Amino acid sequence: MNPLECYPVVDLGPLMKGMVIGGLGIFHVFLAQFAIGGGMLLCYMQWLHMRGRCSLSRFFSEGYFKVLVSFVLGAVTGVAMWFTTIQISPRTIGVMVHGFHWVWATEWSFFCLEVVVGYLFYRYGPWLPDRARLQLLVLYAFASWMSLFWINGIPAWQLTPGDLLTSCSVWDGFLNPGFLPSLIFRTVSSVAVASLAACVLINFAGRLSREQRESLVLLRNWNHLCS
User: Fold this and answer.
1) pTM of the predicted model, to two decimals?
2) pLDDT by residue for the chain (227 residues), tens digit each?
3) Lowest CB count within 10 Å: 23, 25, 135, 207, which one?
4) Alpha helices (runs of H) in the chain, residue ranges in sequence order
5) What angle is formed at CA 221 by the lines to CA 219 and CA 227, rounded to 5 degrees?
């Protein structure tokens, strides 16, 4: 008997297996893309502060990053995704790990860098000079987007395997027909999610007046904000 066919059968009762993976996956992807887009947004806000556009941009970035620590939940739900998918479809996960183990290892390296830099900014950001803050934020945004870049090719391969089925080349599978469209879509979605979260945070900031909130959301009248 083939050892790959000896996995136990998981019965989730009234819950369908696809809904379990889908529900957890939606939550995980939302947090992950929020962290990616948030890093880009914070870089932009810090750059505005260094250009002298408005002092409130630093206040915003410090408050926003406390919300952005959701990448901790993103990491936890990522582990939960591994546990759930291994229980439901171990053979599929085994094939993906066997074929893309170095791609996954590269993605994990960038994710580790993202977490380390994120915690450094969270712990020491308020006391760092502006240039050092910007460097940390750029490194955080770069690491988080590169994590997206490397992981994007694997789920895209599941939908559009491309030439991997005939060439058995990892790069043919990774750089599949759906890779670039999904990468662009995920990047835009990350920025959109982070911007919406920023609007929510701004509107709940008690220290800002209504005019200041409106100006910060619309990115206009910066001189009025600093007055």
Assistant:
1) 0.82
2) 455 556 666 666 666 667 778 888 888 888 888 888 888 988 888 887 777 766 556 556 666 666 666 566 777 777 788 888 877 777 778 888 888 889 989 998 998 898 888 888 888 877 888 899 889 999 999 999 999 999 999 989 888 888 877 888 889 889 999 999 999 999 999 999 888 888 887 777 666 677 777 767 776 544 444 44
3) 207
4) 17-50, 56-68, 71-88, 90-124, 130-159, 164-167, 170-174, 179-203, 210-218, 222-226
5) 120
Residue 110 lies in a domain: yes
Contact 24, 84 (CB under 8 A): yes
Total of domains in the chain: 1
Q: Would residue 11 count as lying in a domain?
A: no
Query: Is residue 55 a part of any domain in this protein?
Result: yes
